[in-house]
Amino acid sequence: MSFPTSKQHGYLPVPNIEDTVDSPRPRSDLEAPPKYSYFEDVEEQEYDAMRPRKRAETWKTTLTVGFLVAAAMYALVSGLRGAFGGSACRGRKSGLPTHYTLPSGDRIPSVALGVWRAEKGKVGEAVKTALKAGYRHIDGAWTYGNEAEVGAALRESGVPREDIWLTSKLWNAFHAPEDIEPVVDESLSKLGTNYLDLYLIHWPVAFKKDTAFEIDWDLTNDPYPTWQKLEELVEKGKLRNIGISNFNIRRIQNLTTNPLKIKPAVNQVELSYWNPQPELLKWSKENGLLLEAYSPLGSAERVKESLNIPIVKSIAQQLGITPAQVYISWHVQRGTVVLPKSVTPSRVEENFQITRLPQRHFDQLEEAAQSHKPERSVDPSERWGIDIWN
Ligand code: NAP
C-alpha cells in the first residue's frame, strides 16, 4: 500500500529546523483575552448548547436576518458537527465527551495515545494503529526519545496534520528562557510539523544546564520566566496552547499569581485507581483548569494489579466491557483527558472504546479508588532531591 506524500497532508516533507521556524500556522484568536474555562463537547447534546460563542453568533444572526437564516445556520452547524466530531460515532454511542474546548477555542480530544516507554521500533506502529482506530491525539515528550518515529508514523498514516492533536513537553534541563526555543524546534523538526497543539512544562522542577539532576532553585521556585518564553512561542505560532504537568495547587498558584498573558490550558497529572486525587480534581474544575490523567491504568508496574481489582472486574463483567475500558471510561466521566499507553495493537484499539458508566458503577469505582491510601506510580522526588508535591 502506498501512502500519500507528506506534503499533501500538511507535514513538513523533510523535517529540519529551518523549515519550522518561519512558517507558523496563523492564529486568529491570539488577540482575544484569555478565558479561564473549558467546555465539554458531548456528542449527544446540541452543539450550540455547549458552545456559548457559537450560540451568541447564532442569536445575532437570528435577530438580523430572521428565522430562515437561523434555520440555515442550524443546518450548517449540524454539518460542522459531523465534520469536526472526529470520533463522532464513538461519542454518540459512549455518552462521554469526545473533546474539551480550551480557552483558546481549540478542541482537545478526550482520549490520547500515550507514548512514554513506547520503544523505538514499536511506537510508530502503535501510532498508526491508533490513528486507524480513530485516535486523533498523541501525548509525547522530548524526553521520551521517540519523537522522530512518531513523526514518521504520522506522515505515513495519511491523516492530515490539522486533524491530529500533538502534545510535547519541555524537559527540566531546558527551563532557562534561552534554551526553550531550540528544544521546541527540535521537537517540531522530529515530529515533522511547524506547530504543536499543546506544550507542557513537564515538571515543576528546573535542572541546571549540563548537570544530571542538579536543581536550579531560582527557576524552580519561580517558573514565570519559563512561562513568559512559552507565551512568546504561542505568539510566534509555534505553540497553540501551553500548560503544565505535575503541578500541585500551591505551584499552580505560584505561577498564576504573575500577570500571565495566557493561563495554563491544562495540568497533566497522575490520576488512577491508586492515586485518584479528588481534591485536585475538584479544585481544577472550580478553577476551570482541565486535567489530563497520566498513568491511568497504574502504569506498567501496576497495570496487572489494577485490572484485577474485584469491583472493576465486576463492573466490567456487568457491562460487557474490559477492566481497562472501565478505567478509561471512568477518567473521561470524571471530566479529564485520559492518556493510556500501549504498543499492543489489540489494546490500543480496546482502549479507545469507552462508554458512560451507569451512575452507581461510577460511584462504586470512585469510592473504591478513594478508600485506600493514595499511592503514586511516578515519583522522582527522591532521585532529584526535591519534594515535588509540596
Ligand atoms: P498506563 O497507560 O497507565 O499503563 C501502560 C501499561 O499498561 C503498559 O505496560 C501497557 O502495556 C499496559 N496496557 C495498556 N493498555 C492495556 C490493556 N488494555 N490491557 C492490559 N494492559 C494494558 O501508564 P503510563 O505509560 O505510565 O501513562 C500513560 C501516558 O501518560 C504515558 O505514555 C505518557 O504519555 C503520559 N505520562 C506523563 C507523565 C508526566 O510526567 N507528564 C508521566 C507518566 C506518564 P503494552 O504497552 O505492552 O500494551
TrEMBL record:
Q: Which residues cross the membrane?
A: 61-84
Q: Where is this region: Disordered?
A: 1-33, 368-390
Report whether Membrane shows up as a keyword of the record.
Answer: yes
Regions of compositional bias (Basic and acidic residues) in chain numbering: 22-32
Name the keywords, alphabetized.
Membrane, Oxidoreductase, Transmembrane, Transmembrane helix
Whether ATP-binding counts among this entry's keywords is: no
Annotated coiled-coil positions are none
Q: Which GO terms describe its molecular function?
A: oxidoreductase activity, acting on the CH-OH group of donors, NAD or NADP as acceptor
Its recorded name reads NADP-dependent oxidoreductase domain-containing protein
Domain NADP-dependent oxidoreductase, which positions?
117-368
